[in-house]
Amino acid sequence: MAQVKILAFAGSLRKDSYNKKLVKVAIKGAEAAGAQVTYLDLRDLQLPIYDGDLEAEVKLPEGGRRLKDLMESHDGFLISCPEYNSSISAALKNAIDWASRPQHGEKP
Ligand SMILES: Cc1cc2nc3c(=O)[nH]c(=O)nc-3n(C[C@H](O)[C@H](O)[C@H](O)COP(=O)(O)O)c2cc1C
Q: What residues form DSSP beta bridges with 37?
């Protein structure tokens, strides 16, 4: 059976994030179970806040394109996210919003 590819990241941008530490522990478990894991730091994507006018201008910002390519080339995601006001972080929601936008004739 082909090795399962997992994209792992935390929904926190800060350097000393507990969720970054946690997802790295979980990565070890996934690798021990046989998965091939790619770790991504969302901060490296430098994603702007989703803005439909910016999207009309540039389609996807570079970081959004990178995230979408990574998501499409992996079988599943391993995400650790802080709770912010009883919800997910804005960083995670914003990343999902950009990556979910259809590109070049893709269906929404
Ligand atoms: C804006 C904001 C909202 C938060 N809301 C909650 C919350 O609703 N519940 C909770 O348990 N912790 C809440 N926290 C605490 C964070 O979840 C906590 O600081 C967490 O460690 C942040 O994740 P990180 O260490 O990966 O950066 C909040 C923190 C911030 C900055």
A: 6
Residue in 56, 26, 87, 31 with CA at minimum distance from that of residue 96: 87
pLDDT in tens, 19-57: 999 999 999 999 999 999 999 999 999 999 999 999 999
pTM: 0.94
- Residue of minimum CA distance from atom 31 in ligand 1: 84
Determine the atom of ligand 1 nearest the C-alpha atom of 22: 26
Can you state the angle between helices 62-72 and 90-99, rounded to 10 degrees? 80
Atom of ligand 1 nearest to the CA of 11: 26
